[in-house]
Amino acid sequence: MAVKPFERYLKDKQEGEAIGEPGGVNTIDEMKESFQRALENLSEPSKPTKFFRSFVPRKTDEGKLTDTSVLRFGLYLNPQLRTAASITAGEDIIKKLESEDEKDYISSLDEIRKGIDSGIFDLSSGVGTLLFAGTDFAFDTDFQSSFEDFMKDKEPDRPETWQGELVGLLTQFGVPGSIIQKVVTRIPKVAKIKNAVKTK
Question: Is 89 a member of any domain?
Fold first, then answer.
């Protein structure tokens, strides 16, 4: 004879109480292990993003600037000056300045620079892959794998925040600079809205 639905529910409930909930914690030792796993999966909180702090950086006791992101952004926009400074320093001047920074936040200018760099890289590698996929198929060559190996060494630093990722995405898909500028100027407002929604 078939079991009625309510009888089945009562039977399942009794079995569940005897066995314990699936995936649930049933003993103190299991609770300790579960708590330990949760602690191990926690990551360090991300640094805050500052939009205007990099325009007025603080100085250290030795007189060095703690944040040189304005200088790096200016050098990024002026390739001739960047090349001359890199030749004088003997290495890439932007990487050198970045390694000397002593800031406890993420600069929005660095994120914009990294976003533009990564967007240009993604666009050029995408176009190259598409181009060499066709020639490899048509002429039975292997240019695409050589191109991908070449591009692995050229990959720039990736942005750490969603603002930089957004700039990179807009750059990759060829969105005009005026639209990117409008989006970038509205990013602080979006961040405030996001934080307000998160706190509620």
Answer: yes
